[in-house]
Amino acid sequence: MTTETIPQIVYDKLIAARVVGAFTGAGISAESNIPTFRGDEGLWAKFKPEELANFNAFMKNPKLVWEWYSARKKIIHGAQPNPGHLALAELEEIIDEVIVVTQNIDNLHRRAGSTKVYELHGNIERNYCIKCGENYADEVILADELPPKCGKCSGLVRPDVVWFGEYLPQDEFAASEEAAQRSEVFLSLGTSGIVYPAASIPQVAKYSGAFVIEINPETTPLTEIADVTILGKTGKVLPEIVNTLRSIKRKGKNID
């Protein structure tokens, strides 16, 4: 199913919903020209992400890890929310409650205007001291020589992202599960649906009774449980859906 054949039931379900959940992955970030986790080129091409994004690597060579993250931070800082991010934020003007659960660490959903966002893998724009827990903004820690040190206890400062071998933040995961359980419609946007435990969130929504809509360029393991799958990029499909919903609202149509 493509954007030209978005079924009426998609609009019917969304216009009638009070709570809509959305689960987003690397695909929506790629539309903002943010390379995937394994897509770095140049100097970093010779490293596997597992060799850098783990606590042991950080303790062994914090300067190297920070140089990698500084490069990624620069790319992300220069990126802008794309039409998919913006349409998802605009959905809040139509639906009573829209809850975003994201695997992405780029903060683009908040920058686009989404107000309720749960970040399962952390946020690259946040940092904290591994010794005392003090939080630091990028403009503070990146102003000095790498690796950054805590101004209070001189401990090492690390990016506030989930590394290999680490658990997801339990409060964010629990809140995401609750959001999935409460959702009447659940959107799966630009995600392969293979990274667990995050990928279990759409399943929770489905088994809790939500109408699941998948938007992705290719089919995924989530396609099997989705009520509707639309093949296409989020930045093209979602604005079309939101614009149509606005038109329905303007015409005052009530769809049960």
List keywords for this structure.
256 residues; three-stranded antiparallel β-sheet; 38% helix; six-stranded parallel β-sheet; Rossmann fold; elongated; alpha/beta; SIR2/SIRT2 'Small Domain'; 11 helices; 2 domains
Structure commentary:
- The chain has 256 residues and is an alpha/beta fold.
- The chain folds into two domains: 1-34 and 81-121 and 168-256, Rossmann fold, CATH 3.40.50; 36-78 and 127-161, SIR2/SIRT2 'Small Domain' (2-Layer Sandwich).
- Helices cover 38% and strands 18% of the residues.
- A six-stranded parallel sheet has the order 3-2-1-7-8-9, with helices on both faces. A three-stranded antiparallel sheet has the order 5-4-6.
